[in-house]
Amino acid sequence: MKNVTDSFLSLGHWPSAGSFGFNTDILATNPINLSVVLGVLIFFGKGLNDLLDNRKQRILSTIRNSEELRRGAIEQLERARTRLRKVEIEADEYRMNGYSEIEREKENLINATCDTLERLENYKNETLHFEQQRAINQVRQRVFQQALQGALGTLNSCLNSELHFRTIRANIGILGAMEEITD
């Protein structure tokens, strides 16, 4: 212990310039080195401590901000999941309503097509009936014309002028009698 105190006291007795060398006395040099290192650490440690405290506060602040952002992100994720579930439910409803609507439209189209086909069938039948009646009337007219021509030809060949005059007078008499009845 005496050596340690002696080394501190002997600081003022160091020989002045002229000799430079290594002190090999470990007990004399270690306390000086330690005191210098401790002095430097204490001097710079205060600033370092403030620097570390600031750094610690920034890290804690960053962690708090990150936690808040994480909570916000989780809330947004939950809201997005909720919206997604709602949208999926709505999509399923639209899909089912769409299928129902398609089936209704299909049924309506089939019914409308059946109605149209039925009307066309009725129109076709009416047209066929009309054409048949027209054809029958044309045949009747031709038969009547041919019969009339045949009858006229027969009458003209069979009638002489006196028989012709008597037939005309008889018809005029019938017409006159009919005129008296109506008056």
Automatic annotation (TrEMBL):
Location(s) in or outside the cell: Membrane
TM region(s), chain numbering: 32-52
UniProt entry keywords in alphabetical sequence: ATP synthesis, CF(0), Chloroplast, Coiled coil, Hydrogen ion transport, Ion transport, Membrane, Plastid, Thylakoid, Transmembrane, Transmembrane helix, Transport
One family name in Pfam for this protein: ATP-synt_B
InterPro entries: ATP_synth_b/b'su_bac/chlpt (IPR002146)
GO CC annotation: proton-transporting ATP synthase complex
An example molecular function term from Gene Ontology annotations: proton transmembrane transporter activity
Superkingdom of this protein's organism: Eukaryota
GO biological process, one term: proton motive force-driven ATP synthesis
Coiled coil ranges: 63-97
Membrane topology: Single-pass membrane protein
PANTHER family: ATP SYNTHASE SUBUNIT B, CHLOROPLASTIC
Function: F(1)F(0) ATP synthase produces ATP from ADP in the presence of a proton or sodium gradient. F-type ATPases consist of two structural domains, F(1) containing the extramembraneous catalytic core and F(0) containing the membrane proton channel, linked together by a central stalk and a peripheral stalk. During catalysis, ATP synthesis in the catalytic domain of F(1) is coupled via a rotary mechanism of the central stalk subunits to proton translocation.
Family per record: Belongs to the ATPase B chain family.
This protein's name: ATP synthase CF0 subunit I
Species this chain originates from: Wallichia densiflora
Lineage: Eukaryota, Viridiplantae, Streptophyta, Embryophyta, Tracheophyta
Gene name for this UniProt entry: atpF
